[in-house]
Every structure is written in structure tokens, then in C-alpha cells.
Amino acid sequence: MRYRLILASCLAAAAASVTAQQRAQPDWKKVEDETMTHYQAVLRLDTRNPPGNEHVVDEYVKKVLDADGIPSQVVGSDMNRPNLIARLKGNGRKRPLLIMGHSDTVTTDDKKWTHPPLSAIRDGGYVYGRGTVDDKDNLTASLMTLLLLKRLNVPLDRDVIFVSESGEEGSSGIGIGYLVREHFADIDAEYCLAEGGGVTRIGGEVKYATVQTLEKVPRGIELVAHGISGHGSIPLKSNAIVHLAGAVAKIGDWRPEIRFNETTGTYFRKLAAISPPDVARYYRDVLSTDPKVQKAADDWLFENEPRHSSMLRTSVSPNIFTGGYRSNVIPSEAKATLDVRALPDENPAKFLEEVKRVVNDPAVDVRFTGQNERPGFPDAKLDSEMYKALEAAGTRVYNAPTLPTMSTGATDMAQLRAKGVQCFGIGPAVDFEDAPKGFGAHSDQERLLESELHRFVRFNWDVVMAIAGAK
Ligand SMILES: [Zn+2]
């Protein structure tokens, strides 16, 4: 009896210290069935962009939310391609959390698919279909989290906003661009979770999780060479094509200076700690303050791991070269376009001067193409409540270390970051070996392991509870 009393009082004390997170545990078996239902349903809706027609996903999601009494609004500049916004109210102690996924997918070459791209067929533990890993996984996981928060009546310290955005695949003007322009008050948040990260499995085993905290900024530059035109039978020193070729060759040989930020510095340090010794040394050496050691590692990365090389610097890739129209005419102009991916803190004007210095030819004009005049922005902070929650969930759900990453390409988080929202890119676990086999995002085929879809929903829930659940 006494023992029982002691036990009872221990239990009571334990119960009092239980967090909201532990109190409200969903019935995961039931959640898995429903997750699969919604996932397959949205995969079967054709939102291949172009043309997109994302309204079909919004209509489906709206019905699902309506059934649970979660209010939502469908907004857009093109009502064939709208966005959906839903919000669960918190007590306002903290600023909102935005969770989002994009409803469009890239197009498909149907003959390349074993299972048709809109079939969402389950086979051998996988679900097949366009959008399975980009981005109907994030869309489904955030939808499930929202539904569970509502059903379990979870007290929240901040509003949780859910967004299904359209047009991510190359037409963000109608999606995130429109939302930031016309509905920013409806989506403004302290933190945002979207696509862009993930968990890497190698040989079927989870190795590490990545969280995208930063991305490079596209800033196109063009080189225009001017010369005297003339008859092709009389070569001229001023030949525009020769001058342009010289300029492009110099750019090709040039690797702008290496500069680390909090994200990339942490990334390479942590990657070195979990990689086999033969490659780990390059990740460590590239951080070295000894220029010779750093240069050797940089050379190795450029040749063997070009994505990592691009993460070190503002990168420049000459991708278009045009000039001339007849073999017997010396043209007066030739033009090359450089794809520049700037580090977020790069000073554009200074960088342009740098390019001019490298080209070093008065016959070649160097200028910005005028597109992508996006502002730079700071890293999502690694000492923030959100990053810590993501790290903790990575350990709890995947038993894996978390690495912050900087995308070399642009994402829809850029627009939000420019408005001061701290964004973090997440994603489910996929096999490292799967993309080279042609099953990755934008590949000939696309698939996701069912078990990893369900684990990702739990991860999503875990993070949202930690960040938004009332303490
Ligand atoms: Zn995507």
C-alpha cells in the first residue's frame, strides 16, 4: 500500500512535468492510413507545370480541411493556379509558424515510366509518381500535421499557418511571389518550414539529415564583345568572336575567392566528422587558413564534387555563347551569358568590377542581364529555437546528426527570407543510390519509400509540436 502510494505520487509528479508534446500523441497507425490516402490523392491530381492547374489540389485540400472545421482561403492572380492558406490560432505568445509545400510538379515523359506518372501505385515498399519527392511529400506531411493539431486540440503558443503554393517550378510569380506581394499579412511568420532539405540513407541506413538554411542568389552577367565587321577573307584583329572567346576562357579558368558563412562552415566541419577519412580530409583542408592546403582541397572538390566547390564561393558558369551568322562575314558583336550564383552576402557592384578585371579587355562590355535582381539575405540562424528543434527531431526520429546546407540553386524561400522570415528546408529520407538510378526529383521517374513518408510525417509533427506547442 505504501509502495503504491509512493508510486502514485511519483506518477503524479511525472504527469505534471509531461510536456504538451507527450500529452498529445496521435494514433500513428491510423495516421499512416490517412497519410497514404491524401498522398495518393494529390499525386493522382495532374498539376504538371506547365500548365499547372493547381486549383485541383486546392479544391481537394480545402475539402479535407473543411471536414475538420479548419478555415482556409484560396487566393491567386490566376484562379486556375491559386494558393491555399489555412491557419490554426495559438495564444499569440510567439509569432506564427508557416509550414508549406508546393502543389505543382515538373512535367513528365510518360514513356519513361514503368508505373504511369499519375498512378501513385504502391509497389515493393515504394510509391511511384511525379511529385512523390518534389513536393507532394512536404505538402502531405504539413497537411497531416495541421489536421492532427486540430483534432487533438493542441494548445499552441503561436499560430500555425499552412500554405499550398502554386507555380514553384518556374512560375513563382503566381505562387510565392503573389503571396508575398498580395497576402503577406496572411503568411507572415517568424519561422517557415518548406522543401530543400532531407535525410540521406546509404546502403539502406540513415547517415545524416540536412536542413537548408541558406541559398545562393542568381545574378546573370553578360559579356558583349564589339569589333569591326568585314569580309571573312580578311581576318581582323578586332574580331568580336575572338575577343569573346578569350574573355570566356579567362572566366572559365577563374575561381572566385572562397568565403564561408555560418552555414557552410558548419556544414563542412560536420561533414568531415561523419565522412570516411579519405574524403574527410578534403572537407577539413578546405577550411584551412593555410592557402596552399586550402587550394589543394579546392582543386579536388572542383574536379570531384562540383556542388561542394560551388558552395565555397560565388560561382560563374558561361552557359550561352552567340555570335556570327554567315561563314564569310566577320560579325561586329558577339555575346556570352554567365550564370552567376552569388553568395548571399556578395556585393553585386564589387563582383561586377571583379569580372571586368578578369576579362581585362576594353572590347568586351561586362554587365548584369537585369534579371533576378533579388536582394541578398542573412542565414537562417543556427542558434535559433527552430534549428535546435530540427536537430533534436533529427536525433529523436532518425537517430542522425543534422547538417545545415546552402542550396546552390534558388528556392521559393528566397522571397520569404527577403521579408525577414527565417526559413528552413526539410524533406523525407531517400536512398543516396536512388537519384542516380533515375528516381529522384525531376528525374525520368520519381518514387518515395512508404516507410519514409510515414517517418517524415512524424518528424514534421515532432518539430511543429516543439516550436508551436504551448509550453
Ligand atoms: Zn520542389
Task: Provide a concise account of the structure shown.
The protein is built from 16 helices and 20 strands. The N terminus is likely disordered. The strands form 5 sheets. A 6-stranded mixed sheet has the order 1-2-6-3-7-18. Strands 10, 11, 13, 15 and 16 form a 5-stranded antiparallel sheet that branches. Strands 17-9-8-19 form a 4-stranded mixed sheet.
Task: Give a description of the structure.
The protein has 471 residues and is α/β, with parallel strands linked by helices. 39% of the residues lie in helices and 21% in strands. It is built from 16 helices and 20 strands. The chain has helices spanning 2-17, 20-23, 28-44, 55-67, 136-151, 176-182, 184-187, 240-253, 262-274, 277-285, 291-304, 306-311, 348-359, 385-398, 413-418, 450-468, and strands at 72-75, 83-88, 97-102, 122-123, 126-128, 160-165, 191-194, 198-202, 205-215, 217-218, 221-226, 230-231, 315-323, 329-330, 333-342, 364-368, 402-407, 422-425, 429-431, 447-449. The chain has a six-stranded mixed beta sheet. Helix 3 (28-44) crosses helix 5 and helix 5 (136-151) crosses helix 16. The longest helix is centred in the last third of the chain and has 19 residues, at 450-468. The radius of gyration is 25 Å and the shape is globular. Residues 1-18 have low confidence and may be disordered. Zinc ion (ZN) binds next to loops.
